[in-house]
Amino acid sequence: MRFALISSSLIGLVCSWLGVYVVLRRIVFVGVALAQMSALGVAVGALLDKDPVTFAMIFTIIGVVIFAPEYGGKKIPAEAVIGIGFVASWAFTILVFSKVAHGESDMVNMIQGNILGATERDIDSLLMVLLPVSAIHILFYKQFLFVSFDSEMAGTLGVKSGLWNFIFYLTLGIVVAVSIKVAGVLLVFAFLLLPAVTALLAGKSMKLSFALAALSAVISSVTGLIISFKADLPTGPAIAGTLFVLMLLTAIIAFIIGKIRK
User: Fold this and answer.
1) Are 85 and 33 in contact (CB under 8 A)?
2) Are 195 and 213 in contact (CB under 8 A)?
3) In the chain, what is the straight-line distance between the N-terminal and C-terminal CA atoms, in Å?
């Protein structure tokens, strides 16, 4: 439980921060596509009996290279390219796991996660990746925020929007890759989406939104772990469900406050 709490809180803190950008940029589908490509990497690593995190990183970086530039045009829009990547990686993940011993149970764990199985080594691996990524996003907060709001304006003012967009996608992909093995696809994607929506519903400034996203991720991690322990429920879905309930309550409260003000 102690390792599960530490690992889920670490993943929740960083993914919720990046998730604010994901929601602002309207690239939610990119997040789930990268998560699925990372899962394919884990499956290939299991098939070859190699380190799954290394293969998850390789496949996720391939996804970053594909999704980060603005591919497509009138005939093939960027959304179609992302959708193709998601469908293909999902299909091949199932096919690869079908050839792995205990592949069916491994695939279930990959989807819903097995965060109670987190070890001290997993936490060390998370810290080696999440701390540098966090430092990059704190140091270059203004650049990432500016490019997320108005990439074209940033370019006219001398900010290399293409470079910063690629760095954002790269850091997002690396975080997803290292988190998938510990938390699973469902929980990682939930951390990317739900805390950000919760924060943007409640926050009146961007700095407050980032803080609220991180806070909601940690609160949901603790509450979800307690619920899963008391009710004997799967931990990953319990945390994801708690994130959804918190988002729903925030939306209801924000709606009521808006009506009262009117």
Assistant:
1) yes
2) yes
3) 46
Structural domain boundaries enclosing 161: 2-261
**CB 79: neighbour CB atoms within 10 A?**
12
Cα–Cα distance for residue pair 66/101, rounded to 1 Å: 31
Instruction: Kindly state the greatest CA–CA separation across the chain.
Output: 61
Neighbours of 261 (CB within 10 A): 6
Sorted by sequence, the CB contacts under 8 Å of residue 26 that are 6+ apart come out as: none
Which tens digits make up the pLDDT trace of 180-191?
Answer: 878 888 888 899
117: domain CATH number is 1.10.3470.10
Cα–Cα distance list, 64 to 7, 38, 205, 214, 226 (Å): 24, 11, 29, 24, 35
Q: Count structural domains, the chain.
A: 1
Report CA-CA distances (Å) from 247 to 11, 35, 191, 212, 240: 18, 22, 12, 11, 11
How long is the chain?
A: 262
Amino acid at the residue 240: A
Most confident among 94-103, 108-117, 239-248 (mean pLDDT): 239-248
Question: pTM, whole model, 2 decimals?
Answer: 0.83
Over the stretch 221-260, which tens digit does the pLDDT of each residue have? 999 999 999 998 888 889 999 999 999 999 999 889 888 8
Query: Predicted confidence band at 73 (pLDDT cuts at 50, 70, 90)?
Result: very low
> What distance in Å separates the CA atoms of residue 175 and residue 12, rounded to the nearest whole number?
11
